């Protein structure tokens, strides 16, 4: 089978000219973050923020040029905008001096304005009341499972809910939400989100095959997220739940800075608390002034499927104590239970599949707490969360 390398990709991109600058996009130094992994190719095209919205055809032309190469199975190009690094409470600017905030193509919105002197420009998401992040200090702690069940529980409580899979290193929401296929774009500009169980869902997983390895650099993560926020017709939502990429690196920090988050829910396991990973997540949001709505302890204890006995395999109560120490709300503890795994992995999350179970009840109670905090935050901070 034909393979493709970076040199071939760059050669193909040399045939794509910037319409306004009289040369090709490689010679002009506009390509960055080129990643070739098997047949999957990703790169960013760096553009002047003012030109961002007009350059969607250029982005598409670049994708087509690479797609035509033998051995290429997927191509993802994102537009990113250079702008001065924001100074934010001493936080290091992601990307070493440049904030590749990824001004992707935005259709007529004033998205590509320069960063305000006071801090990074937040992305506009009209019609969405509050965006909340579900985050974790590391992978595999049940962050996606919690995001999905929390979203379904918010919907069950009567809110209009969207779910955005920002964990684009390993998007699992399509599978967990039992959705396959691709979102459509009736007007050729905005994508209509997919939907199941009354929740609108968008994920990179709909746009690339599940087994596609996705090695994204920080700026590309942000570009993709921006496109999923701006170019998806979310309609009117009370809450958009964002399943964050795990960890607390530059990509996560950039997201926390650029997405107008009303708050964050931190998911952790008892071991994770012991290892202080959860605290890192908490500090990250505090650094960028995003309120932490609370901590969920997942896989908190083992619930025997035969006799219902609870075994505290790992040290118990850590998250509750830690939350108290850190002055953060403790939202609840979810047991390690095979039913949670089975339902979440086969696309029928427990809040939907077993609404009368204790677990579903717990998720709904968590959702209520979170919703009340969002409403309280809205009242307190007012325009901070209102998206213009
Ligand atoms: P993350 O998003 O943190 O990487 P996932 O939500 O994908 O984690 O969960 C990792 C695995 O653990 C999945 O197979 C999921 O079904 C399972 N899982 C998550 N929470 C629980 C739980 N409370 N009990 C049993 N299995 C769980």
Q: Overview of this structure, please?
A:
- This protein has 388 residues and is of the alpha/beta class.
- The protein is 32% helix and 22% strand.
- The strands form 3 sheets. Strands 6, 7, 8, 9, 10, 11, 12, 13 and 14 form a 9-stranded mixed beta sheet that branches. Strands 3-4-5 form a 3-stranded mixed beta sheet, sandwiched between helices. Strands 1-2 form a two-stranded antiparallel sheet.
- It is elongated, with a radius of gyration of 21 Å.
- The protein binds adenosine-5'-diphosphate.
Q: SSE order in H/E notation?
A: HEEEEHEEHEHEEHHEHEHHEEHEHHH
Unique ligands: adenosine-5'-diphosphate
Q: Distance between termini?
A: 50 Å
Structure summary, number of beta strands: 14
Radius of gyration: 21 Å
What's the total helix number?
13
Brief descriptors of the model:
three-stranded mixed sheet, 13 helices, alpha/beta, 388 residues
Q: What's the short story on this structure?
A:
The protein contains 13 helices and 14 strands. It is an alpha/beta fold and about 400 residues long.
Write the layout of secondary structure elements.
Layout: H1 6-13, E1 17-18, E2 23-24, E3 31-37, E4 40-47, H2 56-67, E5 74-81, E6 128-135, H3 143-156, E7 161-165, H4 173-176, E8 194-196, E9 199-203, H5 204-207, H6 218-230, E10 237-243, H7 250-258, E11 261-268, H8 270-274, H9 277-287, E12 292-303, E13 310-311, H10 318-326, E14 330-336, H11 338-345, H12 350-353, H13 358-381
Parallel strand pairs: 4-5, 6-10, 6-11, 7-9, 7-10, 11-12, 12-14
Antiparallel strand pairs: 1-2, 3-4, 8-9, 12-13
The site of adenosine-5'-diphosphate has 19 residues, from helix 3, strand 12, strand 14 and helix 11.
